[in-house]
Write a structure and sequence with these properties.
The chain is mainly α. It has helices at about 1-15, 30-40, 50-75, 90-100, 110-120. It has five helices and no strands. Helix 2 (about 30-40) crosses helix 3, helix 2 crosses helix 5 and helix 3 (about 50-75) packs across helix 5. Residues about 1-20 have low confidence and may be disordered.
Length: about 120
């Protein structure tokens, strides 16, 4: 129950608008490590500042992704991926995607790993 609540909060945060990109991006591996650490904390994770860090990173990645899709469509380019309007993200799906990455891929920015999941989940047909 707590795990679903935590992952639900992270997933929901990916759909919210975000502030502009921060100077230092988190890697996919760092995001996963923080998420796993919070998961191990159980209900106490909801009061952790790391939860806010993950939410903000997710919001940033989501905003940049959405802006890229809009820009690509407006310029007549084939979009990176084709998510449905009002689509949702399953947090377990995100975490499992991050876990499936190779060690080298976990060194990429979280944003890049997020883009990879979106391309896999919502390919353009």
């Amino acid at each position: 129950m707590i795990q679903k609540l935590f992952y639900g909060a992270v997933a929901f945060s990916l759909l919210l608008p975000a502030p502009l990109m921060a100077a230092g991006e988190m890697t996919a591996g760092e995001f996963l490590a923080k998420a796993e650490k919070l998961k191990a904390q159980g209900p106490l994770a909801l009061m952790s500042s790391d939860l806010t860090v993950l939410k903000n990173e997710g919001k940033r990645a989501s905003k940049v992704y959405k802006d890229d899709i809009v820009r690509q469509k407006k310029s007549g380019q084939i979009p990176h991926s084709c998510p449905p309007e009002g689509g949702s993200m399953n947090a377990d799906e995100l975490i499992n995607h991050l876990k499936s990455l190779s060690a080298a891929q976990k060194q990429q920015p979280f944003r890049s790993a997020f883009y990879g999941l979106m391309k896999k989940k919502y390919p353009c047909k």
